[in-house]
Each structure stands twice: as structure tokens, then as C-alpha cells.
Amino acid sequence: MVEYMIGKVGEFRSGSAVAIQAGRHTIAIFRAGDEFFAISNACPHKGASLCDGEILVKERIVRCPWHHWNWRLDTGKLEGDPRQRVRTYEVAIDGDEVILRT
Amino acid sequence: MNQMSDPRRERATRIKPDPIDPRGRAYKVVDTDFHFLPEWSDLRRYMKEPFRSELTSYPLAGGDYSPKYAIGLEGTGQETQGRARTAADVLRVIDDIAVETVILTPGFTRPQSMFQQVMVTATAAAYNDFLINEVFPASPRIKAEIMINHRNPLEGAAEIRRVGRHKEFVGVYTEFGGNYEPIGTARHDPIFDEAVAHDLVVTSHIGMFWQKATPLSEGTRTWTELVGLSSVSITIAYVGAMIMQGLFDKYPGLRVIIKEGGFWWLPEFMARADDYYLSHPGDIKLTERKLEANEKFLAKLPSEYFDSNIRFSSQPMCFPKNPQHFKALMTLCKGEDWLLYSSDWPHATFDPINWVFNPMISEEGRRKILSENARGWIKRLGS
């Protein structure tokens, strides 16, 4: 397991996202309310960058910016067909630091 | 109190991922369907009176069904990726999406579904003149299709004659899906006469009143039925009219591109049309063109006209779940030869180049789909 320091909690506002390069993985980090989520950044449909998608904070969903496929941030599952999913990653808060574990 | 970060942790590098596959930039990509939507006030400057005074906004198109119920966005779903109003906008976007040469198609709501045909003619002429004067001079990378009023074939033909000498026009734009006759019927021959005379491809693009104004879609309720599926049925009927009513026997050099009508239906079409034709050819001689030519049969089997006369823009590329099925479909539909890449930017069905790097497509196929097929098929593009 590798731990990455993503940034300070206060750097992220609710409803925002960033993408990071963690080794060979491109991962999108989302803040929805007080919670943080991390999923693989590339939409499996056509490859859009999910960190650019609309974030539905209450529903914990990111909408793909190209074709509006709705991915659940907590499970990585596709809303319309939960059998499909993107990879999720563990995010933790350590003090005021946001930590990603891969 | 400040905490020291655990030194064993790596500091993540924040990036701005480019979702467009960077390999695409090596292919001199041709985008055969990119929607251009100038400001109405800019088109109005090219309108003649009384239209300039009377038409203060884009003429309304009839029969829309809002996609907002299906995709949760307000509007028509036609600007989900943005809007190109000017040549500068076009150049900025095609740089972003790794396109070298773009073919503009009208971006406003379904030109052929404007109720009032005289307004279609006036709008088409203004649109074409705007392109000639304010878009083409900006860059040789920008080409376009001539907008015409295809519901009035004589006026459509006249517009091709009027602007066809401008080599930046590479095709003629028509639509399918409304309650008008398919473009393949003989009443449209004035349009085909001019297209062939000017070396222009004729394209048939999904249009309006959309499919819901046809009996085919009576009872539909959803976007998937209307746009995703009924458009395929309409396309089959349109292509059927072209082939079975002798369009390509009268114009053997005519080149057609079908846009947004699907293509995975080709194996069924080709086998079924050949079988029905061979079993029931008696009424071929009763069609207008065959009567005119005093011919009894088609010059070849229906399935054989695709190689010589018809191609398909690639968007939306819909993948079967099983990659081997995709490979089989590509083989059955001659996808590496008959598909011409298109993005459909900026619509909700935007299709970037990424799918062409599917491992089931050969390297030669990538070159063909992204560039060579279009450059070979559309004569005015050149190679």
C-alpha cells in the first residue's frame, strides 16, 4: 500500500474535485459535504475525465461530463446499471491532511 | 497546532488530465460531423429583405421532445459541450479534441423541420454566405456542407449552383426523420444532379420533426426510443429508398454519407434486401428512375451499393459488451472501410476519438477511420 498526501482539508470545498497522478493511476478526489471520495478518473464509457463532471453532493454522485453517466462516489457503481463500476480508493483524514491509499 | 506530514507519505501530483487520447494527434483526423451555431444576428446580416426585418431569431422547429427528461439538463442537449459561433471557436475546439480538419454541419435546431419552407431557404442562404465570408477565410482546416432547403428540391439545387463553386464546401446537408419523403426518392433528383456536377457528397443526418412525427414512433415515450432507436429504423428506410429506387444506377458516381443513423444493422439489411429483391423484383421497373431509363432491374444486388456509394459517420459508436462481438460487427459492416470518424460536437452524444484505439481495431483501420476514409470518399477534401 502506498499513501499519498493530497492536500489540506481546507483546500477542498464541498462539491469540488481534483485529479492526481498516483504512480500509474489517475485518480479523481471528490469532496461532498464533509466526506471525501476517490475513484478512477477515466469514465469507462468513452474515457472522459470524471474530475470535470458535475458533482451531486447530496446524492454522492458524479455525472460524467460527456454523456452524463452517473457514478456513485461511495461505491463506484453506475446508477443505471450497478453491475458496472469504477475503481474506488480509500481516503482518510489525518489531522488536517487528506490521505489517499492505493 | 500544525502537524508534520508523515514522511513516509508521497506527495500526490495534481494534474489536469486530457481525456482525449494523445495518440490521435498523429493521424490528421477528419471530423465529418461538427455542429456550428452562429449567432442569429450574424446570419441576419446576410439575409435579404423582408427576412432580415421579419426573422429576429432562429425560426422555430416543430415537434421537439426535450432531452432534459432523459439527461437531466435544461435545454435541447445540443450545447452540452459548448457552442461554436465563430471560426475562432471552431479552431479552438478542434485543437482540443485532436481534429485536424473539420466539416461543419448546421448546429441550429433541425433546419428541415422549420415549418415554413421559404424561411428554410432564406436561412440556408444566409448560413452559407456567413461561412463563405467569415469562416472559410480563417483557416483551410475548416470545411462545411452546404445547407439547403431539401424539401424543395428545385430551390435546394439552386442553392448548390449558387455557392457550389466555393471549394470549402465539400458536401450537401440533408436530414432524415421528418414527415417528408426520403432523400432517395426521384423528386430529389435536381439536388443529386447538382451534387454530382459539383463533386459534392450528399449527407443525410438525423433531423426533425424527429422520428416522433412519423407513424414509426407512434406510442413512444422515451429519448432512447425516439432518438436512439427510431432513428435507426428511419435510416434503414432512407437507405432502402436510395438503393431500391435506383438512385445509384442513375448516379453511379454519387457518394452518400449517413450520419447518426447507426450501422450495426447493415448485415440484416444487406442479406434481407438481396433476398427480397431476388424474390420480388417485379416492381423495380415501376419506379420513376427505372421508368425514365426503361430498365427492369437494379444494376447489381442491393448489398453491393454500399461499397460503391454509401458510407457512415461513426458517431455514436455503441460497443457490444463482448469485445469479440464488436470485432465481428466491424468485420460484417466493413467498419474499417465504411466508417468515417465524427464527433457530433457539442451535442449530448459527443464522441471523441478515443474509441478508435480499441484493441479490436487494426492500426490500418485506425488510419482509415480517423482520416483516410474521409479523405478518399469526400473528393473535395483531397488526400
- Quaternary state reads heterodimer
Q: Share of helix among residues of chain A?
A: under 10%
What is the radius of gyration of chain B? Answer: 22 Å
Biggest interface, which chains?
Answer: A-B, 30 and 28 residues
Tally the beta strands of chain A: 11
Name the beta content range of chain A.
Answer: over 45%
The major β-sheet of chain B equals: 8 strands, parallel
Mean pLDDT of chain A: 96
The total count of strands of chain B amounts to 10
Q: Helical residue percent of chain B?
A: 25-40%
Please report which band the strand proportion of chain B falls in: under 5%, 5-15%, 15-25%, 25-35%, 35-45% or over 45%: 5-15%
N-to-C series of helices and strands of chain A: EEEEEEEEEEE
Radius of gyration of chain A (CA) equals 13 Å
Principal-axes shape call of chain A: globular
Contiguous low-pLDDT stretches of chain B (5 residues minimum) are none
Give a verbal description of the structure.
The complex is a heterodimer of chains A (102) and B (383). Helices cover 0% and strands 54% of the residues of chain A. Chain A is built from no helices and eleven strands. In chain A, the strands form three sheets. In chain A, strands 1-11-10-4-3-2 form a six-stranded antiparallel beta sheet, with no helix packed on it. A three-stranded antiparallel beta sheet of chain A has the order 5-6-7, with no helix packed on it. In chain A, a hairpin with a 4-residue loop joins strand 5 and strand 6 (61-63). The termini of chain A are close together. Chain B has 383 residues and is of the alpha/beta class. Chain B contains 15 helices and ten strands. Chain B has helices spanning 40-44, 51-54, 68-71, 87-96, 117-135, 153-163, 189-197, 223-244, 247-250, 266-279, 288-293, 305-309, 323-332, 335-338, 363-377; strands at 10-11, 13-15, 30-36, 101-106, 142-147, 169-176, 201-206, 256-259, 310-313, 339-340. Chain B has an eight-stranded parallel beta sheet with strand order 3-4-5-6-7-8-9-10. In chain B, strand 5 (142-147), helix 6 (153-163) and strand 6 (169-176) form a beta-alpha-beta unit. In chain B, helix 5 (117-135) runs parallel beside helix 6 (153-163) and helix 6 packs parallel to helix 7. The longest helix of chain B has 22 residues, at 223-244. The mean pLDDT of chain B is 92. The chains are: A mainly beta (102), B alpha/beta (383). Chains A and B meet through strand 1, strand 2 and strand 11 of A and strand 1 and strand 2 of B.
